Amino acid sequence: FTLIGIALYLLWKKLCFLPSYEELVNPVTPPCLEPSLQDQNLTQSSPAIQPKTGAYVIGSINPELYKDPEDNSETNFPEGNIGRLWFSVEYEQETERLLVFLIKARNLQAPADSCSPFVKIYLLPDERRFLQSKTKCKTSNPHFDENFVFQASSKTLHQRTLKFLVFHTDKQKRHHLLGQVILPLRNETLTSDSKLVIWRDLEAENLEPPSEYGDIQFSLSYNDYLGRLSVVVLRARGLKLQDESFTTSVYVKVALMNHNKFIKCKKTAAVLGSPNPVYNESFSFKTDQKELDTASLSLSVVQKAEDDKSHQLGRVVVGPYMYARGRELEHWNEMTSKPKELVKRWHTLAVAPN
């Protein structure tokens, strides 16, 4: 009976003397859980309530991690840059219209403190006609937002080239050429379904008068690891065409020689008869490094008429001392001294011997 009495006493004491807890007025929320989902809803409806900066609910998305990458095309300019141009191109097959939308330019380097630029647009080989934008006053970063239309046959479209000349107008209303952009349409896919947006850096135009038979510009590069000689035929200027009609075309033939023995020949695509054709085509030749002392490259500019008759307009040979002198020898030596680097130069065309 004594044990039973003790047990009943302990049970009665436990039930009558339960501990009481004071409700917290300001409960502490773990940092990883603030603000709560309910707090976020309140924040959206009540601007006065703002969540703690830098804290996110478990399972929510941090928007800082999903921002679009920055477009560096307007800020990342290489050393010596003289400007950059943005434009778009599309082609309407049914109406045979080439639509050019001039968007903007950035980082223009005007000769004076203030820059008032405008742009002339050509569709080569027609260099007598052009379309011109409005002049934007006192800005080196103009917005043009102008549309231009050229009529161009679908059969000859890929033999045409767009040329943009960017000018600056000074206080005396004189025009100064700031640079040019040349876009051959040969490698572009142009449709009316999608607008091709392009940006290009301006190039300084060669203001030297062309030589008697014209000039050609190309780049040379040699990869000593792969044993590969590369040639990029860029453009020609001042060519003396026998027939300047659109029925003629001009191409460049590149031949690799070794000890005056023909090794291999490659040709560019033909460009409609223009004294200033643009190519931008690259060719590679397998050449061992030991052969560079005996190898040479011959570049011939050839005019082809509608009846398939061909006429060589001029030629230039680059190579080591036994084959070349002057600029041609310097170009070859610079290429061999700078492996894997493109070396670009202009060369004077000479009439090939009969």
TrEMBL record:
GO molecular function ontology, one term from the record: calcium-dependent phospholipid binding
InterPro entries to which the protein is assigned, alphabetical: C2_dom, C2_domain_sf, Synaptotagmin-15/17_C2A
Alphabetized UniProt keyword annotations: Repeat, Signal
Keyword Zinc-finger annotated: no
Keyword presence, Nucleus: no
Xref: Pfam families: C2
GO biological process: calcium-ion regulated exocytosis
SMART domains documented for this protein: C2
Lineage top rank: taxon: Eukaryota
Domain C2: 81-200, 212-333
Gene3D superfamilies documented for this protein: C2 domain
Record GO cellular component, one term: exocytic vesicle
Signal peptide coordinates: 1-16
PANTHER family in the record: SYNAPTOTAGMIN, SYNAPTOTAGMIN-15-RELATED
Family, per entry: Belongs to the synaptotagmin family.
Protein name in UniProt: Synaptotagmin-15-like
Species name: Crocodylus porosus (Saltwater crocodile)
Phylogenetic placement of the source organism: Eukaryota, Metazoa, Chordata, Craniata, Vertebrata
Gene behind the chain: LOC109323998
